[in-house]
Amino acid sequence: MKLKQLEGLVGGLQQFSNPKIELEQYPTGPHIASRMLYTAENSFGDVSNKIVADFGCGCGTLGAAAALLGAEHVIGIDVDSQALELAYQNAEDLEVDIEYIQCDVKNLRWRGQSVDTVVMNPPFGTRKKGADMDFLSMSLKIASQAVYSLHKTSTREHVRRAALRDFNASSAEVLCELRFDVPQLYKFHKKKEVDVAVDLWRFVPKH
What's the pLDDT score for residue 21? Predict the structure, then answer.
C-alpha cells in the first residue's frame, strides 16, 4: 500500500468529540500516523505478519494503520471506554479486525500472546508528570522486537537516557522530527492550533 493511500484511509476515521484533558487525549493526525506505520513496515519490517499493540490507542488510528499494512493481529489498549467505542467503530468502517482491551497501560499484566511491535502516541506528560515514561517503560517490557513512539523533541535527551539506562532498551533512535498539530480541543487552548515538534522514536528492547 502506498503512503498516500494509507494516509487517505486513516484520514477518514472519527476522532474524539469530547476529549478528556486528564488523559491528554489528542488525536494522532493521519499525516503522522501513516508515516509512523509506513516507516515501521517499509524500513524495518516491523508490521506485516506481526502482532502489533497500540498503547493508549484512543480512537485507534495507529492500530488501524497497522492492520491496513498487513499486521497478523492488532491489539488496542486504552483506559477510556468511550475512546474504545470509537476505535471499534473505526475498525468496523475500515473492515479491519482489531482486538480492544480496556486497561490502564500502567497496570498492564500481560499474559496474552507475545507482542512483536508496540506503536503509541503516549500522553506527553504535561498534565500528569511521567505519564509518557510509564508508557515507554511498559512498552519495552512487552514488545519483543521494537517500540515506535512519539515524544516531544524538547525531551529528547531525557527520553534517550531513560530508555537506555532505566527501561532496558538496547537501542534508542530518533527516526525523524515531525510537527504535531494540536487542534484547539480544550477551553484553556488560546490558539486555534499549535504546532509541537515531536520525535518519532524506534526503541529496541533487550532480550
Answer: 54
